[in-house]
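Many introductory courses stop at the sequence. We go one step further.
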Amino acid sequence: MYNKFKYIEGGICAAKGFKAAGVYCGIKKPANDDPSVKHKNDICLFVSDTECNTAAVYTQNKVKGAPLIVTKANLEKSGGKSVAVIVNSKNANTCNADGVEKAQTMCDLVSKELGIESEKVIVASTGVIGQILPIEPIEKAVPLLAASLSYDSHLEAATAIMTTDTVKKEYAVEFEAGGKLCRLGGMAKGSGMIHPNMATTLNFITTDCAVSAEMLQEALSEIVKVTYNCLSIDGDTSTNDMVSLMANGLAGNAEINANGEDFDTFKAALFEVMANLTRMLAKDGEGASKLLECVCSGAKDKDTAITVAKSVVCSTLFKAAMFGEDANWGRVLCAIGYADAEFDINLVDVELKSGNGSVEVCKNGAGIEFSEEKAAEVLKSDEIQIMINLNAGSESATAWGCDLTYDYVKINGDYRT
């Protein structure tokens, strides 16, 4: 969608040397105890055949899930190396007195089962905050996960990390670096509590391209800013947000350890995957009926474009108007106006677009005549673009969000129970 890279199947298993597994272990007691009912996977494991250089970014929320604390410590101990990732859903293991102990136990269980060092295990959790994580189901699940590992089981893993998600989220591409064919793929989860300040939800990316840990971190930090950081569903930054990026080098290219053409290609491939996963997260926002994509162009710098675009997709009033298919463009101008950036509002143009057409609604900061019937037709689509031109420069940025519906309140009114 965003570049010339070829899309491929496989998610986190698309890159050479990565295998995965996902099972249901019963972390949360199901509503239906009928043993004949098949329950959704709630824990997964994925592993590289060889040690990986690894980069990660974490939530900026002051309340951090225990798995983030353990993962960060592990990567510091290992010097940015990892081999395996274990993830559970239905329980965030956050705000618990024994949280770090439980997260470390998960790493130790994988370490023992796979015969690897515990500090080379990444651990993540998602689900309800403040409830004790039962470790017994996980103790029983790890041997089963290890025995089930397969180079084709990406779907089982992608399903296992879902909470209120209605669809799995995977994307992978192939590209060339150093004359070698490389692959990069990822999976993500998230539907609510999404308003990142570094990344959002749980996101895992793997590649067989050889890249140093330092360059991986540089690439991840750069691309996060223009993808996951430009996403908002409901204005709430999760306690468990994390993105990890693992590179095992099995593509056989000379390791990328400095800026240059290969590094630029790698970053472009990373953007392709992360931007598409970001878009999927936005479209599957809790209760959402419409994907909102705000493109701000004509900005004096990238930060201004990002700030303005995010301000619009974060507006509760605008999100509600899009649900009602009401071309209330004044709410766009209002959101632009309180964006923390410097620009001349009297130069701003706004256009609403979709697969059903487009309609200009604002020119030079003021409303212009437009057909309400045409606007209504544009807004009937389930994917809407808000095109903003600041007419003050050459930089642009995109932010993603969704409409605000009755179902969002229904989902979150009884999320814990």
